[in-house]
Amino acid sequence: xxxxxxxxxxxxxxxxxxxxxxxxxxxxxxxxxxxxxxxxxxxxxxxxxxxxxxxxxxxxxxxxxxxxxxxxxxxxxxxxxxxxxxxxxxxxxxxxxxxxxxxxxxxxxxxxxxxxxxxxxxxxxxxxxxxxxxxxxxxxxxxxxxxxxxxxxxxxxxxxxxxxxxxxxxxxxxxxxxxxxxxxxxxxxxxxxxxxxxxxxxxxxxxxxxxxxxxxxxxxxxxxxxxxxxxxxxxxxxxxxxxxxxxxxxxxxxxxxxxxxxxxxxxxxxxxxxxxxxxxxxxxxxxxxxxxxxxxxxxxxxxxxxxxxxxxxxxxxxxxxxxxxxxxxxxxxxxxxxxxxxxxxxxxxxxxxxxxxxxxxxxxxxxxxxxxxxxxxxxxxxxxxxxxxxxxxxxxxxxxxxxxxxxxxxxxxxxxxxxxxxxxxxxxxxxxxxxxxxxxxxxxxxxxxxxxxxxxxxxxxxxxxxxxxxxxxxxx
Length: 476
Ligand SMILES: Cc1ncc(COP(=O)(O)O)c(C=O)c1O
Prior knowledge:
Blueprint: H1 12-32, H2 44-51, H3 62-72, H4 95-106, H5 118-135, E1 142-146, H6 149-165, E2 172-177, H7 182-190, E3 198-201, H8 211-223, E4 227-234, H9 246-256, E5 259-263, H10 274-279, E6 288-291, H11 293-296, E7 304-308, H12 313-318, H13 350-360, H14 362-386, E8 389-396, E9 399-404, H15 411-428, E10 434-438, E11 441-447, H16 455-471
Parallel strand pairs: 2-3, 2-4, 4-5, 5-6
Antiparallel strand pairs: 1-7, 6-7, 8-9, 9-11, 10-11
Helix pairs in contact: 4-13, 5-13, 6-7, 14-16, 15-16
Bound molecules: pyridoxal-5'-phosphate (PLP).
């Protein structure tokens, strides 16, 4: 068949060859991952020099283009699904889900309006039900897939604003902890709240919000004639994995008629296992709850979810029915996800999670979550055994924070040492580890939610931390 570039088509043979090539590359990538570096040390000028090519006006060879991408795009990135990517909140992902995403994209499946694409919409609805069951959120009525946690948090807060404040945001106040993810303050800012309409409440030594201070802040604002409307609670902070006292917060909210929004972007998945569910007690009382499948439910980017407990509130906040969509308006029992969030055109994000649950089963997901929790505990035990580390916060929801100690260093030097170790680790590439600040002290941090982390990965990383730390110059 002759190729007609104006139709943006390939012949069936070319389509197959391209697809098989892509699958072969992916299988190689997944099978060989442990033996490759987790971090990459790219040089900006070189990389940009390679990628800033002129717009390709004429047709090119896909083999050459993919070989180029393997080198300069996919070869120049930290591998977030790598077992030694222990930084931030990793995205362990899984191959089945990656193929599912390719299929969803290949079919250009949308999950927007029921009448247009009923199968994908029902697939998203079923997957939302499954996630509710996995996380113990069966009491939540509605949900929507989003690009990730930042947007899911924004959606929950938009519903809180709509339900509690209507059109009048005057004097409204929201509350969160000093450990709350930065996307919450940003979401409130974008939703039109001024900086002084968010109170950041201090956490205690356990990095959980101090309930007495929270109560006092709400009381003060009420006395001042302001309108407290929402508490943002943490179900697993990014820094330390801390879970706020969710029942305590929900009781306080009930007393004052406030909305409870729970950010469980990474931590809510711990509810898949018994210990995690105990730690997350009260999560089911959140008026809105965020959980990100692209974190601890092992999905490739992008997938977040916001659940809302009371039926209809999501739609109330986001409904829009222009005349050009009149033929696909929601019928009885139908769901139009286009009226549950910001996106009209939206891809079928649920399919990857649907397929991975069908292929691996929920029991495998539970084992994988349990493994992540146990891995952080093993890492802490190894560090203790070495006698070289201070464990700053005990392993919680697969996060452990720690510092390498060296004799004779003061506080500032010890903090500097941790940052120096991160720089040396990133240069080395074996593992991707980053630092954070806890009560003014720089600490290292592992987030071990990847179920494929082995003891060799931990031992090799800890050995390098000690070696690079001992070799680092902390005084000029
Ligand atoms: C607790 C928490 N909330 C929100 C987010 C933001 O999620 P996303 O990166 O998917 O936008 C993160 C990201 O790590 C997180 O850990």
